[in-house]
Amino acid sequence: MNWIYLITAGLFEVVWATTMKLSHGFTKLNYTLMTIVGLAISMGLLALAVKKMPMSLAYPIWTGIGAVGSIIAGVVLFGDKLSPLTWCFVVLLLVSIVGIKFTSGS
């Protein structure tokens, strides 16, 4: 169950980062509220996950899911352009997340 909490928390990190962009500097109330709710859910689920998982495992995976997901959201939803070299680093980030998981012993 901890892994479900952690993965869901990472996905909600993507939600709040995306809605923060859509809030245009917190000037659009609906997206501002979605940002706050998404952030609260993300943090709450992360807090549940770290109750039984090492922080040294949970936190980097949470931030990695958020980072990679936000990159993908930026490309898909906002038309962000990334160079091929940047995509290589995104892949390295994914490899790092998986590596942390498999070498942690958890």
UniProtKB/TrEMBL annotation:
Membrane topology, record value: Multi-pass membrane protein
SUPFAM superfamilies per record: Multidrug resistance efflux transporter EmrE
Gene3D superfamilies: 1.10.3730.20
Segments crossing the lipid bilayer: 33-50, 57-78, 84-103
DNA-binding in keyword set: no
InterPro entries: EmrE-like (IPR037185), Small_drug/metabolite_transptr (IPR000390), Small_multidrug_res (IPR045324)
Keyword entries, A-Z: Cell membrane, Membrane, Transmembrane, Transmembrane helix, Transport
Subcellular locations according to the entry: Cell membrane
Main localization, broad class: membrane
One Pfam family here: Multi_Drug_Res
Sequence similarity: Belongs to the drug/metabolite transporter (DMT) superfamily. Small multidrug resistance (SMR) (TC 2.A.7.1) family.
Protein name as it appears in the record: DMT family transporter
Species annotation: Companilactobacillus huachuanensis
